[in-house]
Structure formats: structure tokens, C-alpha cells
Amino acid sequence: MSSRTKRYLERTTGVKLMCTICGGPFYVPPSKVAAKYCSTPCRQTGNGKKNSGAALRGTGNGNGYTRSKQRQFEHRLVMERSLGRKLLKHEAVHHKDGNRKNNRLSNLQIVNRAEHMFIHIHARQVEQHERDRIR
Q: End-to-end distance of the chain based on CA atoms, in angstroms?
């Protein structure tokens, strides 16, 4: 059996676990169910060899949000780590200062989607009122 076939079988017939750092799924053979991490960066973060957010850092996208290496928005990952669970479908993460790159926990607020829309609509209305008043 080729190593490629063996890796495929391990991935498809192995035990599915969740990474303790990023929360992503990964597969291991039944003999290695004690594994905690999905990748080297997550393992190094878990063992204290890198900054605590090293596994989360990624690149920005066109609208100002930062995506992690796991292709998730970093602000959502930071909040999920803080809560110790995945965000529910109706939950949104709001940046209090409006800076989408500031993903510090102190700048993030969990709200439901309706509240989040209200916050942003109200902020736009206030900005428009200020612009109209200046003219």
C-alpha cells in the first residue's frame, strides 16, 4: 500500500478530533487518540513556544477583516476562544471602536444579529446627521 493511500485511509477511517487551539477538526489513527493539536503551529502555541495567537494570524481580505489560516474571521475565533465554544448562528461579534483590524477581546462585543444591524444603522444615521449639520 502506498503512503498516499495509507494517509487517505487514516484520514477517512481515523478518529475525528477537535484541535484544542483553533477548534478545527483533524483525523488521527485510533492508536493516537490522545492527540490535541491539528498542526505544528497549533502544537507550538499549545506548548508555549509561540505567542498565544500565532495559530490565528492570517491575512486581510478586501473589506478590512482579518482571516485566520483556518479561513475564519479572526474576531470570531478570538470570541470563540474566550467563550470556550463556537458562536451560535444568531450571534455576531461587534468591534466597539469600529476598527475591523483591532481584534483584542476588550474591543469585541457579542450581540445578536438584529442588535448588530441596529448598532450600525444608528451609527450611519448619526454620521449623516453630523454631515448635514456641518453643511
A: 76
47 Rama class: left (phi>0) / alpha (psi -120 to 50) / beta: alpha
List the pLDDT tens digit at each of the 135 positions of the chain.
677 776 676 666 677 788 887 777 777 777 777 888 877 777 777 776 654 444 444 455 555 666 666 667 888 888 998 999 999 999 999 998 888 888 889 999 999 988 988 888 887 887 888 888 877
- Residue ranges per structural domain of the chain: 1-55, 74-135
Strands 15-18, 25-28: pairing kind: antiparallel
Strands (E), the chain: 15-18, 25-28, 59-60, 66-67, 91-95, 108-112
Distances in whole angstroms, Cα of residue 51 to Cα of each of 19, 57, 72, 78: 17, 10, 19, 14
